[in-house]
Write a structure and sequence with these properties.
heterotrimer; A alpha/beta (586); B alpha+beta (132); C alpha/beta (597); A: 586 residues; alpha/beta; Ubiquitin-like (UB roll); Fe-only Hydrogenase (Larger Subunit), Chain L, domain 3; four-stranded parallel β-sheet; 18 helices; 16% strand; C: 597 residues; Glutaredoxin; Rossmann fold; 5 domains; five-stranded mixed β-sheet; 20 strands; 38% helix; globular
């Protein structure tokens, strides 16, 4: 597209036609403040509500002020971003927002991460000149997400994320005027809505209106209980992001320091969800090969493609929105739940303690994991396989609360046995990783040959929907990958309409980017680069691992030999597989 | 009603329907209209005012006089000369005709209304118009 | 075929229908039949006559008799006296408020003398449910002319040349709007009629739809031909059941006559219309919000560009005009752009319909040429201020318009003059205020309306209008400060400067247009805790005049809080601390001994 010439604050800049004033200003280092605006163009999430009016600028020849984020440039446009008219308007808009916002910043979950607070600081606001009515709404507590709409500033990012990107449709604007707010339909509780608990709304909320249920104190209490054996598992994506909470560069791997910190917190055993990821590959891979073999043998009843089932947000999505496809996903439990199940059976038996004496804590990049851990089917006589699930952000709080100087810690190793894992398990944390891990194992099991080159580049990347073919001997394995539920919907619709591309296996992750972009990760504040750096870190960790195929994990081998028998055995079915049930929600 | 197939057909329909709103159109432009008022009190009706009125209406319609309004009024006080008819041409004094019958209607229309010629049977105007 | 000698038109607009006008029609027919003249007199219900102050209206033609406040039982006397004997029913005739003289010809009524009915040409004239009457009034001739004799470009050119501007509030040139939609190529385009009339007190769009629905059907088809759309949508509020009913009937009849549907008049042009219902949100009058609402989304506006002409309904080029704008289109094509542009002022052509309301004698719907002065509208057509009180201000442009005062009375009304005076045309609401109206209270009233009707999307409108109305509330309660007055101004200007859509941008107009002119009145509330107009109940005090009080005790007996004390036959006193300012004593006193100040 042709370029247009624009003058902003006296500086000329040429930008492509169709650019916004905000983009043009950015190009010449003019940082117009924004609030509702959010541009995650790599995942096609652009919030263009233009509702907050913080970014207003003066455009020569225009009667009123223009929102920089939504005003396209034109040739010869003259813009001023810092006149007294603009500054006054911005200040009043900010004061208006603050006049209807709780002032409990000191104890707010977003304190320090709040974009509204940042603006007030940036503007040097010392007084809010307006008083008057305050919006008050019923707080909505779910097992994962808490909605505190008193704090909502109607930026609508959550709506864009939930409706446009995730296509879940749980949130929308309701009511008018001062009473306008974002809520589930009929103002039902989030738990009764179609919400998948993916937490992406929390990830983009600029204020404390949406945040997770904080479970850190329960962890502290468990650790303080002398009668309990408290073990922890950490998901692969956590190690690639936790450092950000301690000021480290995005993409810094902090696996060793994280293990050290967990040990200092007092966990009896510091294990790795990656172990369970390897186990998942054994079960899911076996299921995949089984279905393919039966299919090739002419069994018409076999369901293909097989869909991965590691992601709890995705499972919630299919249970409420694609109820006719419930027999398509793998029946394998997610790594978190496999871990809990094995910990409270195999490992508890090893320790010689009853499962009730054991507390399993999981550290997840995810909020839906909290919901998953609370599912009834993942408990035995009321005792859950995973007792407490906390997010990456919550772990950071725990570490800070315990006076641990994270950045000074020496690297430590996971405990054995459930801390042993392979490179295949690590890449579960990013989009395409699960299916790549499965392919590494399936290839060798199917062909009987050793896979020399384990990196399947064709499965990697950030495209929302990717399709690739992997040659496995005489079989061309067609693989589909989607991250973000909106993209998942596209592939599901394709499967529903007869699977025209003849896909054999599909990996789906609810969050854009996969778990590294999960709803429980440190806030990215709209910077997509952070998510990409986390992905790089994940692949780095994989490349540095001595073992990179799940079926070569020695502890996994031993587990099958001594306890489970073989993949999809009766015991494996009992402990490691699940069923999906339709969930009717609004 | 079938579908209208052309603008021509639509125009024909318009002409056909015009009479539906004719009285209203005329009332709307009363100041430009020649007003024919037939006295329709008991005395008038008894001596045939209704027929006279119908005759006027037919005559005006047949000759397509779209500047003539036929209306009724109460007793004008000339009971001896019923049926009576008052004709007002814009800008002129009203004229009252007495003992009007069907034939006289034709004559009044022909001579006075169309050509403005006076004719016999005019009652001397000592009266005021009905409105006053 | 029976030949009618007389036509009796009974107003069938919403206002008169709710005053039982349908029963009048029934009764008239009944008595005509009883007297054997049902073939001589045609009774029909029409659209609104505009003179709603005195409804139900019955008009008799050809003699232009105008009966007001007619009751169903009056039908008998109308038939027996007027229709049979030719004697007008004196007591039902309209009487001029000032002289009390009965007017026997509606042409002589001041209310109609200065009016010029273009958009309302058929309202109160034809039976809206009868397509034949519309055709008799040149109906669908303009469509026929456009389809057979004009290219789409020529139609657009004619509309451009006429100078017609949008009657819904914005005043954007209609022809230009059509041209934008025409120039955006697409496989599908839409014509949308905005019938989501939301200004309180304004009902011209409803009246047109109720009184002349075919004019809208015809105009939309013309627009469709001009911009290249074959689908029309009318977005109408579900609270307008009568308008919906008549419009539906009009659409069905037009289809039956082949004036909608496939291959209209054998020209190969297809066009059809669908009705979409709104829930009557004020903001849905904003075209982007309207389109979102039609798509089943939340009715809230989005930033323009993109304009609907580029990306509207389902992302397709869409032209949105309001009802009154469309109502002008057939006339423009038939009588020509030159005729239309000869009416009005330099930049505002044609006529405008206004809804007169408030402290004015002739409340109702009027249509005047652009350029008519406020004085003519209020004092000539409107009959002046009720009860002989003094004119104080007139609010034009609905809730987000502004107040114009004595000094603006001789301003010719057009789009630009009103804006220059700090108000706007809006959809044509005109609310007249007299000396008893307190301007801060008026501003508060309107702000409460916009505050409620704001969609809540953008900060300035969602929170800003709330804060404005809170400030005004404080001021009218005598609790305001001079800082509050300054903030009222500053905040108003900021909202105007930063709000996302027209609703928000104009919401502060009631403040901005009164605060300077009536600054003293605002200050009196703040500094003296006094309401000069005597309207703010929180600031009122009731007193008993010693010289007039005879000690009848009526006031003390009616006082609900026992604030009035005094012995029989001696002067009573009001305890100001106890008084709740309910005004009961004031109403009760027969001796004008109680005053409020």
């Amino acid at each position: 597209m042709s370029d247009v010439k624009v003058t902003i604050d006296g500086k000329e800049v040429e930008v492509p036609k169709g650019s916004t004033v905000l983009q043009a200003a950015h190009k010449i280092g003019i940082d117009i403040p924004t609030l509702c605006h959010l541009d995650l163009h790599d995942i096609k999430m652009v919030n263009k509500a233009a509702s907050c009016r913080i970014c207003v600028v003066e455009v020569e020849g225009r009667r009123n002020l223009a929102p920089a984020c939504a005003t396209p440039v034109f040739d010869g446009m003259v813009v001023r971003t810092n006149t007294i008219r603009v500054l006054n308007a911005r200040r009043i808009v900010l004061e208006l927002l603050l006049s209807d916002h709780p002032k409990d910043c000191l104890v707010c979950s977003k304190s320090g991460n709040c974009e509204l607070q940042d603006l007030a600081e940036r503007f040097g606001l010392r007084k809010v000149r307006f008083e008057g009515a305050q919006s008050t709404y019923r707080k909505d507590y779910s097992k994962t997400i808490i909605r505190d709409m008193d704090k909502c500033i109607m930026c609508r990012r959550c709506e864009t994320m939930c409706n446009d990107v995730q296509t879940v449709g749980a949130l929308s604007g309701i009511n008018r005027g001062f009473n306008a707010v974002v809520a589930p339909a009929f103002e039902v509780n989030l738990e009764d809505s179609v919400c998948t608990h993916c937490g992406q709304c929390v990830a983009v909320c600029p204020v404390g209106a949406l945040h997770e249920e904080n479970m850190t104190w329960s962890v502290v209490q468990a650790l303080a209980d002398p009668d309990k054996v408290v073990i922890v598992q950490t998901a692969p994506a956590v190690r690639a992001a936790l450092g950000e909470e301690f000021g480290l560069e995005p993409g810094t791997l902090v696996t060793g320091r994280m293990v050290a910190a967990l040990r200092r917190l007092g966990f009896d055993y510091v294990f790795d969800t990656d172990f369970a990821a390897d186990l998942t590959i054994m079960e899911e891979g076996a299921e995949l090969l089984d279905r393919i073999k039966r299919y090739l043998d002419g069994d018409k009843t076999v369901k293909l493609p097989i869909l991965t089932s590691c992601c709890p947000g995705w499972v919630n999505f299919i249970e409420s929105q694609f109820q006719d496809l419930l027999d398509v996903p793998s029946s394998a439990k997610s790594p978190q739940q496999m871990f809990g199940s094995i910990a409270k059976s195999y490992f508890a038996e090893k320790l010689g303690i009853p499962r009730e004496k054991m507390v399993v804590v999981s550290v997840m990049p995810c909020l839906a994991k909290k919901y998953e851990a609370s599912r009834e089917e993942f408990s035995v006589d009321g005792n859950p396989d995973v007792d407490i699930s906390i997010s990456t952000r919550e772990l950071a709080h725990l570490i800070k609360k315990a006076n641990i100087n994270f950045n000074e810690l020496e690297d430590e190793e996971f405990d054995l046995p459930l801390g042993e894992s392979t490179g295949a398990a690590v890449i579960f944390g990013t989009t395409g990783g699960v299916i790549e891990a499965a392919t590494r194992t399936a290839y060798e099991l199917y062909t009987g040959e050793t896979l020399e080159k384990v990196d399947f580049q064709q499965l990697r990347g950030m495209e929302g929907v990717r399709v690739a073919t992997v040659k496995m001997g005489n079989l061309d394995l067609n693989i589909g990958i989607a991250h973000g539920l909106g993209n998942a919907r596209k592939l599901l619709e394709e499967v529903k309409s007869g699977n025209p591309r003849n896909l054999h296996a599909i990996e789906i992750m609810a969050c854009p980017g996969g778990c590294i972009g999960g709803g429980g990760q440190p806030y990215h504040h709209g910077n997509m680069e952070i998510i990409k750096k986390r992905a790089e870190a994940i692949y780095r960790e994989d490349a540095g691992k001595p073992i990179r195929k799940s079926h070569e994990n020695p502890v996994i081998k031993e587990l099958y030999e001594t306890y489970l028998g073989h993949p999809m055995s009766e015991r494996a079915h009992h402990l490691l597989h699940t069923k999906y049930t339709p969930k009717d929600r609004v | 009603m079938g579908k209208i197939k052309s603008l021509e057909e639509l125009k024909q329909l318009r002409e056909q329907y015009k009479s539906k709103v004719d009285i209203r159109e005329k009332g709307d432009q009363m100041e430009k209209m020649i007003l024919v008022r037939v006295a329709m009190a008991t005395c008038g009706i008894a001596s045939g005012a209704r027929d006279v009125m119908d005759a006027f209406i037919d005559e005006v319609a047949n000759r397509k006089l779209d500047n003539v309004v036929v209306s009724q009024t109460g007793c004008m006080g000339y009971c001896y000369a019923e049926p009576t008819v008052e004709v007002t041409i814009p800008g002129k004094e009203p004229v009252v005709f007495g003992e009007v019958n069907k034939d006289r209607v034709k004559e009044i229309v022909d001579k006075y209304i169309i050509h403005g010629e006076l004719l016999d049977g005019i009652i001397p105007v000592t009266h005021k118009t009905v409105d006053d | 075929m029976s030949r009618y000698k007389m036509h009796v038109l009974v107003c069938g607009g919403t206002g008169c229908v709710s005053s039982n006008s349908i029963q009048i029609v029934e009764n008239l027919k009944k008595y005509l039949k009883e007297n054997g003249i049902e073939d001589e007199v045609q009774v029909l219900k029409t659209g609104c006559f505009g003179f709603c102050e005195k409804g139900p209206i019955v008009k008799i033609l050809p003699d232009n008799t105008f009966y007001v406040q007619v009751k169903p039982e009056d039908a008998e006397i109308i038939v027996k006296e007027h229709l049979i004997k030719g004697r007008k029913v004196e007591r039902l005739l309209y009487k001029e408020p000032n002289t009390q003289t009965a007017i026997d010809d509606s042409k002589h009524m001041d209310f109609y003398k200065k009016q010029m009915r273009v958009a309302l040409r058929n309202c109160g004239f034809i039976d809206p449910d009868n397509i034949e009457e519309y055709i008799a009034r040149d109906g669908y001739q303009a469509l026929g002319k456009a389809l057979t004799e004009m290219t789409p470009e020529q139609v657009i050119e004619e509309v451009k040349k006429s100078g017609l501007r949008g009657r819904g509030g914005g005043g954007f040139p209609t022809g230009l709007k059509w041209e934008f939609a025409y120039k955006n190529k697409s496989d599908q385009k839409y014509v949308v009629c905005n019938a989501d009339e939301g200004d309180p007190g304004a009902f011209m769009d409803r009246s047109i739809l109720e009184g002349d629905p075919h004019s809208i059907v015809e105009a939309m088809a013309i627009c469709g031909y001009a911009i290249g759309a074959n689908k029309g949508l009318v977005y109408i509020r579900a609270e307008y059941p009568l308008a919906v009913k008549r419009l539906k009937k009009a659409i069905e009849d037009a289809r039956e006559y082949g004036l909608l549907g496939k291959n209209i008049l054998d020209t190969g042009f297809d066009f059809d219309i669908e009705i979409k219902y709104g829930a009557g949100a004020f903001v849905c009058g904003e075209e982007t919000a309207l389109i979102h609402s039609m798509e089943g989304e939340r009715g809230e506006p989005t930033t323009k560009p993109p304009f609907p002409a580029e990306s509207g309904y389902w992302g397709k080029p869409t032209n949105v005009n309001n009802v009154e704008t469309f109502a002008n289109i057939p006339v423009i094509l038939l009588k020509g752009a030159d005729w239309f542009s000869s009416i009005g002022t330099e930049k505002s052509k044609g006529t405008k319909v206004f809804a007169l309301a408030g402290k004015i004698n002739n409340v109702g719907l009027i249509e005047v040429p652009m350029g008519t002065t406020l004085r003519e509208v209020i004092f000539d057509i409107g009959g002046g201020i009720k009860g002989g009180k003094k004119f104080k201000a007139v609010q034009t442009g609905g809730p987000s318009g502004g107040c114009l005062t004595e000094k603006d009375l001789d301003t010719p009304i057009d789009f630009d003059n009103l804006v220059a005076k700090g108000s706007m045309m809006g959809s044509g609401g005109m609310i007249v205020m007299d000396e008893d109206d307190c301007m801060p209270s008026v501003a508060k009233f309107y702000l409460e309306f916009t505050e409620d009707e704001s969609c809540g999307k953008c900060t300035p409108c969602r929170i800003g209008t709330k804060r404005l109305s809170e400030l005004l509330d404080k001021i009218t309660k005598g609790q305001g400060t001079m800082e509050d007055l300054e903030m009222l101004k500053t905040l108003s200007e900021t909202i105007k400067d930063t709000a996302l859509c027209g609703l928000g941008q104009t919401a502060p107009n009631p403040v901005l247009s009164t605060i300077d002119t009536f600054w003293d009145e605002y200050v009196a509330h703040v500094k003296e805790h006094r309401c000069p107009a005597g309207q703010c109940s929180a600031l009122l005090q009731y007193f008993i005049l010693e010289e007039k009080c005879i000690g009848c005790t009526a006031c003390s007996r009616v006082c609900p809080v026992g604030a009035i004390s005094g012995k029989v036959k001696s002067t009573h006193v009001i305890d100001q601390d106890k008084c709740i300012k309910c005004g009961a004593c004031y109403e009760k006193c027969k001796f004008s001994a109680i005053i409020k100040k």
